[in-house]
Amino acid sequence: MTATIRPLGMLKTYIGELKETSVDAGLSVRETLTIIGINPDLVAGVFVNDEQQNKDYVLQDGDIVKLLAVIGGG
User: Fold this and answer.
1) Which stretches of the chain score pLDDT less than 70?
2) Is the backbone of residue 26 left (phi > 0), alpha (psi -120 to 50) or beta?
3) Is residue 31 helix, strand or coil?
4) What is the second-level CATH architecture of the domain 2-69?
5) Neighbours of 59 (CB within 10 A)
6) Please, are residues 46 and 54 in contact by the beta-carbon 8 Å criterion?
7) What pLDDT score was predicted for residue 29?
8) Beta bridge partners of 30
C-alpha cells in the first residue's frame, strides 16, 4: 500500500530534489513528513485527494497528498 507525496510552492524549493515520492500507507502525514526529512512545522496546508486534512490524517492506499509551506515575510 502506498501514498504519493507532492510538495508544492516554496516547500518544493526547500526540500530540493524531492518532487514527488511514494510512501507507505498506514502512517499519519506528520509521521511520514518526519520519515522523509521534512519538518512538519514547515507545512501549513495538507490536502489529501484534493480535500483539506490535518497532519494527523492516516494515509490510505492510493492517497495523493499535496503539501503547502508556511510563508513568512515582512
Assistant:
1) 13-19, 72-74
2) left
3) helix
4) Roll (3.10)
5) 23
6) yes
7) 95
8) none
For residue 16, what pLDDT is reported? 62
Bin 36: left if φ > 0, else alpha if -120 < ψ < 50, else beta.
alpha
Q: Give the whole-angstrom CA distance, residue 42 versus residue 62.
A: 24
The set of cell numbers assigned to 16 is 530540493
In the sheet that holds 2-7, the strands lie side by side as 21-24, 2-7, 64-69, 43-48, 51-53
Q: How many CB atoms lie within 10 A of CB 29?
A: 24
Which amino acid would we find at residue 47?
F
d(CA 57, CA 27): 8
| β-pairing verdict for 21-24 and 51-53 | unpaired
**Nine-digit cell string for 15:** 526540500
